[in-house]
Amino acid sequence: MFTYVLANRGLLWREFFPDEVVAAAALVAAALPGGEHLQRHLAELSDGAGMPPLPTSASGLAAPALEALLFVAGPGGPWHQGWTAEADRLDAQRTTDGLVAILRAAI
């Protein structure tokens, strides 16, 4: 997914959406050292339906995940636009800041 996003940036909003990239980057971050809290959160959200499969070796995905995440959720990126409540916008920013930190640490 990350390779596709990075090679097709102009297809944002037509072929893929910022939330999909953020979610995929979160799955990669959850499989990396420092992402244990994300694994617990995913397990809570799954509500017994089973957690989504995490990459078994995510270290090779950290760099492309980070680059794609920064494309959609970097400063002023589309992920940060359109939040109707300030609290939601701040929560989204904290989420992506945490993902960026985990992904950067793995590179």
Quaternary structure classification: single chain
SSE arrangement, N to C: HHHHH
Provide the structure class.
Answer: mainly alpha
Mean pLDDT: 89
Report, as a whole number of angstroms, the end-to-end distance: 18 Å
Rg measurement, Å: 14 Å
Count of separate structural domains: 1
User: What's the helix count?
Assistant: 5
Q: What characteristic shape results from the CA principal axes?
A: globular
Percent helix, as a range, is 55-70%
The number of strands is 0
Largest sheet: none
- Ranges with pLDDT <50 over ≥5 residues? none
Percent of sequence in beta strands: under 5%
Structure characterization notes:
This protein has 107 residues and is mainly α. It has one domain (2-106). Helices cover 59% and strands 0% of the residues. It has helices spanning 2-7, 18-30, 36-46, 62-73, 86-106. Helix 2 (18-30) packs antiparallel against helix 4 (62-73), helix 2 packs across helix 5 (86-106) and helix 4 (62-73) runs antiparallel to helix 5. The mean pLDDT is 89.
Structural topology:
Elements: H1 2-7, H2 18-30, H3 36-46, H4 62-73, H5 86-106
Helix pairs in contact: 2-3, 2-4, 2-5, 4-5
Overview in brief:
With 107 residues, this protein is mainly α.
Key traits:
single chain, 107 residues, mainly alpha
